[in-house]
Amino acid sequence: MTHHVILGAGPAGVIAAETLRSLAPGDAITIIGDEREPPYSRMAIPYLLMGNIDEQGTYLRKGASHFDDLNVLLVQASVTGVQAAAKTVTLDNGQTLGFDTLLVATGSHPVSPPIPGIQSEGVHTCWTMADARHIMGLATQGARVLQLGAGFIGCIIMEALAARGVQLSVVEMGDRMVPRMMGPTAGGMIRDWCEAKGVRVFTGTRVDSITAGKPLQVALSNGQTVQADLVISAAGVRPAIGYLKDSGITCLLGVLTDQHLQTNVAGIFAAGDCSEALDKVSGKMIVSAIQPNAAEQARVAAMNMVAHAQGQTPRAELKGVTQINVLDTLGMISASFGDWQGRPGGEHVELTDAQAGRHLSLQFQGEVLVGCNSVGWTAHVGVMRGLVEGQVRLGPWKDILLKDPTRLMEAYLASAQNQAAWAGAQDERRR
After folding, report:
1. Which domain CATH number covers 210?
2. Each residue's pLDDT tens digit, 300-340
3. Residue 240: is it exposed, middle or buried by C-beta count within 10 angstroms (0-12/13-18/19+)?
4. Is 95 found in the same domain as 57?
5. CA-CA distances (angstroms) from residue 7 to 31, 65, 83, 162, 301?
6. Is the Cβ–Cβ distance between 82 and 244 less than 8 Å?
7. Which helix (H) or strand (E) holds 302?
């Protein structure tokens, strides 16, 4: 019997298992997850902290018998190694599993910055269900909380902490908030918004040390010392692929994949936050750590796992991923798509209304919108994504947008329709 093994019980792993079962009713499927919880969504943890849902609300599938009903075996263990040539996986419980196809979908893990005292009691990441339980016990009304990091994940955590009524301080090494998603103007606007909401924000600042105790003493690079009942480290994440060392599977920042999500080893695939896939806007291989991309990667990988097991050519192809970020920071909506920093030789336009809390930055290469930033322009989010992802040729609308970037909707409707009409004509000609 063909055996498909999936490393990782997050969204990518679960969607891959369900896709496999729909295509291969008689094959054996095993999911290996390293947490002693039913498969759940990390992105739901902030809602748990806010009190909007309970722990069951984080579960990816609500039915207790869902995986049994699918005849999918869930194994709770950590992967210690993969032997690609031997087609085996070793686990920390002493088991060795053989596989016919393998999906690497172990996601990311938090980065632990090299700060003296970072392992002190009362310092936690916000990544697992166990982390959430610790945080809920300490982040009570009025508690002093210091958060290390104001990136995308950090801002989501900050939203949850603010809802718990804590006294919140945020320390960010970059010169602005969300520095990997927002330019200086947009990042500065988000900082000002947070400070107006009562959050102390230290940008361009490091945590030099943490001294254990109750309260914790947090020394900052600006010379200040902040007392905290809880410190949350949100200094970023990295693909969780250390166990692939000496496996024979090629990795750079993440596991390298082709358009079929296959690695350099036939029959071994990767999906989600631990994989590198082609960014269809920039043309570069990137780790795109967002759930919609992970879901599509998992679906494509699973289809091709079945094809490989049946000796067929790949059934599906990933058209590429896109850098997509939409963020709600204490009620301020911001968005970032594609090459928001621009490209050499490109053109750009910015429009800022600080009083209204609105900012728009568009980046062009030729007649194509290749990236954008926005703050407060909620009505344009879908249009911006459509233009960037679709690589829509704007024609004369590019120059119109350079003069008035607020006319995005008109530009999209006119240009996308023209592009669709052109594509239809080409299809007719080929027939």
Report:
1. 3.50.50.60
2. 999 999 999 999 999 899 987 878 889 999 999 999 998 99
3. buried
4. yes
5. 6, 20, 13, 35, 13
6. yes
7. helix 291-309
